[in-house]
Amino acid sequence: MSDSNITPQHRAGFVNIVGNPNVGKSTLSNRLVGERLSIITSKAQTTRHRIMGIVNGDDYQIVFSDTPGVLKPKFKLQESMLEFSKSALVDADILLYVTDVIESPTKNQEFLDKVAKEKIPILLVINKIDLLKGNDDLLRVIDQWKQLLPQAEVFPTSATENFNVDNLMARIVELLPVSPPYFGKDALTDRSSRFFVTEIIREKILLGYEKEVPYATQVIVELFQEGEKDIHIMAVIYVERDSQKGIIIGHQGKKLKHVGIESRKDIEKFFGKRVFLELYVKVEKDWRNQENKLRQFGYIE
Question: What is the CA radius of gyration of the chain?
Protein backbone atom coordinates (compact mmCIF):
# COMPACT_ATOMS: atom_id res chain seq x y z
CA MET A 1 0.00 0.00 0.00
CA SER A 2 1.44 3.38 -1.00
CA ASP A 3 1.34 6.41 1.26
CA SER A 4 -1.20 8.02 -1.07
CA ASN A 5 -3.68 5.27 -0.14
CA ILE A 6 -3.47 6.02 3.59
CA THR A 7 -6.69 7.72 4.71
CA PRO A 8 -6.80 10.85 6.91
CA GLN A 9 -8.55 8.72 9.55
CA HIS A 10 -5.76 6.12 9.63
CA ARG A 11 -4.99 5.06 13.21
CA ALA A 12 -1.63 3.98 14.59
CA GLY A 13 -0.09 3.53 18.00
CA PHE A 14 2.20 1.68 20.36
CA VAL A 15 0.61 -1.01 22.54
CA ASN A 16 2.96 -2.23 25.25
CA ILE A 17 2.41 -5.55 27.02
CA VAL A 18 3.60 -5.68 30.64
CA GLY A 19 3.15 -7.91 33.69
CA ASN A 20 4.88 -10.44 35.92
CA PRO A 21 6.74 -13.50 34.57
CA ASN A 22 4.77 -16.58 33.50
CA VAL A 23 1.33 -14.99 33.09
CA GLY A 24 1.26 -15.65 29.34
CA LYS A 25 2.39 -12.30 27.89
CA SER A 26 4.31 -13.88 25.01
CA THR A 27 1.49 -16.31 24.15
CA LEU A 28 -0.95 -13.39 24.07
CA SER A 29 1.48 -11.24 22.07
CA ASN A 30 1.88 -13.97 19.46
CA ARG A 31 -1.91 -14.39 19.26
CA LEU A 32 -2.45 -10.66 18.72
CA VAL A 33 0.33 -10.36 16.14
CA GLY A 34 -0.65 -13.60 14.41
CA GLU A 35 3.00 -14.63 14.17
CA ARG A 36 5.31 -16.49 16.52
CA LEU A 37 7.71 -13.67 17.39
CA SER A 38 8.26 -14.22 21.12
CA ILE A 39 9.60 -17.50 22.45
CA ILE A 40 7.25 -19.33 24.78
CA THR A 41 8.24 -21.76 27.52
CA SER A 42 6.80 -22.52 30.94
CA LYS A 43 9.94 -21.06 32.53
CA ALA A 44 10.10 -17.54 33.96
CA GLN A 45 12.33 -14.89 32.33
CA THR A 46 11.95 -16.39 28.85
CA THR A 47 11.66 -12.95 27.21
CA ARG A 48 14.78 -10.83 27.75
CA HIS A 49 14.21 -7.99 25.28
CA ARG A 50 11.39 -5.78 24.12
CA ILE A 51 10.17 -7.41 20.93
CA MET A 52 7.96 -5.44 18.56
CA GLY A 53 5.30 -7.15 16.47
CA ILE A 54 3.51 -4.98 13.92
CA VAL A 55 -0.10 -5.59 12.85
CA ASN A 56 -1.38 -3.77 9.77
CA GLY A 57 -4.98 -3.28 8.68
CA ASP A 58 -6.16 -1.09 5.81
CA ASP A 59 -6.86 1.81 8.17
CA TYR A 60 -4.70 1.04 11.20
CA GLN A 61 -1.26 -0.06 12.37
CA ILE A 62 -0.64 -1.50 15.85
CA VAL A 63 2.93 -1.73 17.13
CA PHE A 64 2.82 -4.34 19.90
CA SER A 65 5.76 -4.52 22.28
CA ASP A 66 6.24 -7.68 24.36
CA THR A 67 8.43 -6.99 27.41
CA PRO A 68 10.30 -9.15 29.95
CA GLY A 69 8.36 -10.16 33.06
CA VAL A 70 8.83 -7.74 35.96
CA LEU A 71 11.14 -9.21 38.59
CA LYS A 72 13.52 -8.17 41.35
CA PRO A 73 16.97 -8.16 39.71
CA LYS A 74 19.82 -10.38 40.93
CA PHE A 75 22.16 -9.73 37.98
CA LYS A 76 23.00 -6.71 35.82
CA LEU A 77 21.24 -8.60 33.00
CA GLN A 78 18.00 -8.60 35.01
CA GLU A 79 18.44 -4.90 35.79
CA SER A 80 18.44 -4.15 32.06
CA MET A 81 15.41 -6.45 31.59
CA LEU A 82 13.56 -4.44 34.25
CA GLU A 83 14.49 -1.21 32.44
CA PHE A 84 12.84 -2.59 29.26
CA SER A 85 9.64 -3.17 31.27
CA LYS A 86 9.75 0.27 32.94
CA SER A 87 10.37 2.02 29.62
CA ALA A 88 7.18 0.38 28.33
CA LEU A 89 5.21 2.64 30.68
CA VAL A 90 6.74 5.77 29.16
CA ASP A 91 6.24 5.38 25.42
CA ALA A 92 2.88 3.62 25.05
CA ASP A 93 -0.43 4.84 23.61
CA ILE A 94 -2.21 1.88 25.20
CA LEU A 95 -1.01 -0.37 28.00
CA LEU A 96 -1.92 -4.05 28.24
CA TYR A 97 -1.36 -5.21 31.80
CA VAL A 98 -1.42 -9.01 31.73
CA THR A 99 -2.07 -11.11 34.80
CA ASP A 100 -3.65 -14.54 35.27
CA VAL A 101 -6.08 -16.26 37.62
CA ILE A 102 -3.25 -17.85 39.65
CA GLU A 103 -0.96 -15.04 40.72
CA SER A 104 -1.61 -12.83 43.74
CA PRO A 105 -2.82 -9.37 42.62
CA THR A 106 -0.31 -7.69 44.94
CA LYS A 107 2.69 -9.76 43.79
CA ASN A 108 4.59 -6.76 42.45
CA GLN A 109 2.97 -3.80 44.18
CA GLU A 110 5.68 -1.26 43.30
CA PHE A 111 5.31 -1.78 39.54
CA LEU A 112 1.52 -1.97 39.86
CA ASP A 113 1.47 1.41 41.62
CA LYS A 114 3.33 2.90 38.62
CA VAL A 115 0.75 1.38 36.25
CA ALA A 116 -2.12 2.79 38.36
CA LYS A 117 -0.76 6.33 37.88
CA GLU A 118 -0.79 6.08 34.07
CA LYS A 119 -3.09 8.46 32.18
CA ILE A 120 -3.20 6.38 28.98
CA PRO A 121 -5.88 3.69 28.41
CA ILE A 122 -5.12 0.51 30.37
CA LEU A 123 -6.55 -2.82 29.31
CA LEU A 124 -6.29 -5.36 32.13
CA VAL A 125 -6.02 -8.83 30.62
CA ILE A 126 -6.84 -11.61 33.09
CA ASN A 127 -5.39 -14.64 31.32
CA LYS A 128 -5.84 -18.41 31.82
CA ILE A 129 -9.54 -18.16 32.75
CA ASP A 130 -9.93 -21.71 31.37
CA LEU A 131 -8.37 -22.84 34.68
CA LEU A 132 -11.30 -21.46 36.73
CA LYS A 133 -14.21 -23.62 37.89
CA GLY A 134 -17.00 -21.13 37.22
CA ASN A 135 -18.31 -17.59 36.90
CA ASP A 136 -18.24 -16.82 40.65
CA ASP A 137 -14.49 -17.43 40.74
CA LEU A 138 -14.00 -15.14 37.76
CA LEU A 139 -16.08 -12.34 39.31
CA ARG A 140 -14.04 -12.59 42.51
CA VAL A 141 -10.75 -12.26 40.57
CA ILE A 142 -12.09 -9.30 38.54
CA ASP A 143 -13.25 -7.57 41.71
CA GLN A 144 -9.80 -7.91 43.33
CA TRP A 145 -8.14 -6.35 40.28
CA LYS A 146 -10.69 -3.55 39.88
CA GLN A 147 -9.74 -2.34 43.36
CA LEU A 148 -6.06 -2.12 42.35
CA LEU A 149 -6.55 -0.69 38.83
CA PRO A 150 -9.97 1.02 38.94
CA GLN A 151 -9.42 2.91 35.67
CA ALA A 152 -8.62 -0.25 33.66
CA GLU A 153 -10.98 -2.02 31.27
CA VAL A 154 -11.02 -5.74 32.12
CA PHE A 155 -10.69 -8.49 29.51
CA PRO A 156 -10.90 -12.06 30.86
CA THR A 157 -9.05 -14.20 28.30
CA SER A 158 -7.41 -17.51 27.57
CA ALA A 159 -4.52 -16.89 25.19
CA THR A 160 -3.88 -20.62 24.70
CA GLU A 161 -7.57 -21.25 23.86
CA ASN A 162 -7.80 -17.99 21.86
CA PHE A 163 -10.81 -16.96 23.99
CA ASN A 164 -11.84 -13.25 23.93
CA VAL A 165 -8.64 -12.27 22.07
CA ASP A 166 -10.64 -10.95 19.08
CA ASN A 167 -12.68 -8.64 21.36
CA LEU A 168 -9.47 -7.39 22.95
CA MET A 169 -8.02 -6.72 19.49
CA ALA A 170 -11.13 -4.83 18.38
CA ARG A 171 -10.96 -2.60 21.48
CA ILE A 172 -7.27 -1.86 20.87
CA VAL A 173 -8.07 -0.70 17.32
CA GLU A 174 -10.86 1.57 18.67
CA LEU A 175 -8.49 3.19 21.17
CA LEU A 176 -5.66 3.91 18.69
CA PRO A 177 -4.97 7.59 18.06
CA VAL A 178 -5.45 8.98 14.56
CA SER A 179 -1.98 8.86 13.02
CA PRO A 180 -0.14 7.80 9.88
CA PRO A 181 1.73 4.46 10.19
CA TYR A 182 5.08 4.45 11.99
CA PHE A 183 6.50 1.61 9.88
CA GLY A 184 6.01 0.41 6.31
CA LYS A 185 2.64 -1.32 5.93
CA ASP A 186 4.38 -4.60 5.05
CA ALA A 187 6.56 -4.57 8.20
CA LEU A 188 6.13 -7.38 10.73
CA THR A 189 8.75 -6.54 13.36
CA ASP A 190 11.60 -4.17 14.16
CA ARG A 191 13.93 -7.11 14.81
CA SER A 192 16.47 -8.61 12.41
CA SER A 193 16.50 -12.17 11.05
CA ARG A 194 19.54 -12.91 13.23
CA PHE A 195 17.58 -11.93 16.34
CA PHE A 196 14.88 -14.53 15.67
CA VAL A 197 17.49 -17.22 15.05
CA THR A 198 19.06 -16.50 18.47
CA GLU A 199 15.61 -16.58 20.13
CA ILE A 200 14.70 -19.93 18.56
CA ILE A 201 18.00 -21.51 19.68
CA ARG A 202 17.59 -19.99 23.16
CA GLU A 203 14.09 -21.44 23.39
CA LYS A 204 15.44 -24.95 22.68
CA ILE A 205 18.07 -24.46 25.42
CA LEU A 206 15.37 -23.34 27.89
CA LEU A 207 13.33 -26.44 27.06
CA GLY A 208 16.24 -28.88 27.04
CA TYR A 209 18.22 -28.06 30.18
CA GLU A 210 17.49 -27.76 33.89
CA LYS A 211 18.21 -25.36 36.76
CA GLU A 212 20.51 -22.38 36.18
CA VAL A 213 22.13 -23.51 32.91
CA PRO A 214 19.55 -22.03 30.45
CA TYR A 215 19.64 -18.65 32.21
CA ALA A 216 23.45 -18.50 32.01
CA THR A 217 23.40 -18.86 28.22
CA GLN A 218 23.46 -16.24 25.48
CA VAL A 219 23.28 -17.01 21.76
CA ILE A 220 25.06 -14.90 19.16
CA VAL A 221 24.74 -15.47 15.41
CA GLU A 222 28.22 -15.07 13.91
CA LEU A 223 27.24 -15.88 10.32
CA PHE A 224 23.90 -15.53 8.49
CA GLN A 225 24.26 -16.16 4.75
CA GLU A 226 20.93 -16.24 2.95
CA GLY A 227 20.64 -17.63 -0.55
CA GLU A 228 17.60 -18.03 -2.77
CA LYS A 229 16.68 -21.45 -1.38
CA ASP A 230 18.79 -21.93 1.74
CA ILE A 231 20.44 -20.18 4.68
CA HIS A 232 23.81 -20.99 6.24
CA ILE A 233 23.95 -20.05 9.93
CA MET A 234 26.82 -20.26 12.39
CA ALA A 235 25.90 -19.48 16.02
CA VAL A 236 27.80 -19.45 19.31
CA ILE A 237 26.21 -20.38 22.63
CA TYR A 238 27.97 -18.49 25.43
CA VAL A 239 27.94 -19.85 29.00
CA GLU A 240 29.48 -18.56 32.23
CA ARG A 241 31.47 -21.60 33.39
CA ASP A 242 33.38 -24.59 31.98
CA SER A 243 31.02 -26.99 33.77
CA GLN A 244 28.06 -25.39 31.97
CA LYS A 245 29.83 -25.84 28.64
CA GLY A 246 30.08 -29.58 29.35
CA ILE A 247 26.38 -29.76 30.23
CA ILE A 248 25.32 -27.89 27.07
CA ILE A 249 27.43 -30.18 24.84
CA GLY A 250 26.45 -33.37 26.68
CA HIS A 251 27.93 -36.88 26.43
CA GLN A 252 29.50 -37.34 22.98
CA GLY A 253 27.91 -34.05 21.90
CA LYS A 254 24.40 -35.53 21.93
CA LYS A 255 22.68 -32.69 23.83
CA LEU A 256 24.10 -29.98 21.56
CA LYS A 257 23.19 -32.03 18.49
CA HIS A 258 19.58 -32.27 19.73
CA VAL A 259 19.43 -28.47 20.25
CA GLY A 260 20.76 -28.05 16.70
CA ILE A 261 18.20 -30.41 15.13
CA GLU A 262 15.21 -28.87 16.97
CA SER A 263 16.40 -25.31 16.27
CA ARG A 264 16.95 -26.01 12.59
CA LYS A 265 13.38 -27.34 12.19
CA ASP A 266 11.88 -24.16 13.64
CA ILE A 267 14.25 -21.83 11.78
CA GLU A 268 13.31 -23.54 8.51
CA LYS A 269 9.63 -23.07 9.38
CA PHE A 270 10.18 -19.41 10.27
CA PHE A 271 12.02 -18.50 7.05
CA GLY A 272 10.50 -21.08 4.69
CA LYS A 273 13.95 -22.15 3.46
CA ARG A 274 16.38 -25.01 3.97
CA VAL A 275 18.82 -24.23 6.81
CA PHE A 276 22.39 -25.38 7.50
CA LEU A 277 23.08 -24.68 11.17
CA GLU A 278 26.43 -24.93 12.96
CA LEU A 279 26.51 -24.51 16.76
CA TYR A 280 29.54 -23.86 18.96
CA VAL A 281 29.85 -23.36 22.73
CA LYS A 282 32.19 -20.83 24.37
CA VAL A 283 32.79 -19.72 27.97
CA GLU A 284 32.46 -16.02 28.81
CA LYS A 285 32.93 -15.88 32.58
CA ASP A 286 30.18 -14.09 34.54
CA TRP A 287 28.82 -12.34 31.42
CA ARG A 288 25.49 -11.50 33.12
CA ASN A 289 27.29 -9.03 35.40
CA GLN A 290 29.66 -7.53 32.81
CA GLU A 291 28.44 -4.23 31.43
CA ASN A 292 30.60 -4.43 28.28
CA LYS A 293 29.24 -7.91 27.49
CA LEU A 294 25.63 -6.86 28.14
CA ARG A 295 26.18 -3.94 25.75
CA GLN A 296 27.69 -6.28 23.14
CA PHE A 297 24.77 -8.69 23.53
CA GLY A 298 22.23 -5.88 23.08
CA TYR A 299 20.84 -5.57 26.62
CA ILE A 300 22.22 -2.08 27.25
CA GLU A 301 21.79 0.61 24.60
Answer: 20
The C-alpha atoms of residue 301 and residue 294 are separated, in whole angstroms, by: 9
* Predicted local distance difference test score (pLDDT) of residue 69: 52
Task: Tell me the residue type at 174.
Answer: E
**Highest mean pLDDT, choosing among 34-48, 80-94, 135-149, 213-227:** 135-149
What predicted TM-score, i.e. pTM, was given to this entire model? 0.63
Q: How far apart are CA 212 and CA 215, in angstroms?
A: 6
- Give the model confidence (pLDDT) of 149-180 as tens digits: 999 999 999 998 999 999 999 999 999 999 99
How far apart, in whole angstroms, are the C-alpha atoms of residue 99 and residue 297? 29
Q: How far apart are CA 258 and CA 267, in angstroms?
A: 14
DSSP states of the chain as a string?
Answer: --GGG--TT-EEEEEEEEESTTSSHHHHHHHHHTS--S---SSTT---S-EEEEEEETTEEEEEEE-PPP---SSHHHHHHHHHHHHTTTS-SEEEEEEESSS-TTTTHHHHHHHHT--S-EEEEEE-GGGSSSHHHHHHHHHHHHHH-TTPEEEE-BTTTTBSHHHHHHHHHHHPPB---SS-TT--BSS-HHHHHHHHHHHHHHHH--TTGGGG-EEEEEEEEE-SSEEEEEEEEEESSHHHHHHHH-GGGHHHHHHHHHHHHHHHHHHTSEEEEEEEEEE-TTGGG-HHHHHHTTS--
Residues 271 and 112: their CA atoms lie apart, in Å, by 38
Instruction: List pLDDT tens digits, range 239-269.
Output: 988 999 999 999 999 999 999 999 999 999 8
Report which of 70, 69, 57, 120 is spatially closest to residue 92, judged by C-alpha positions: 120
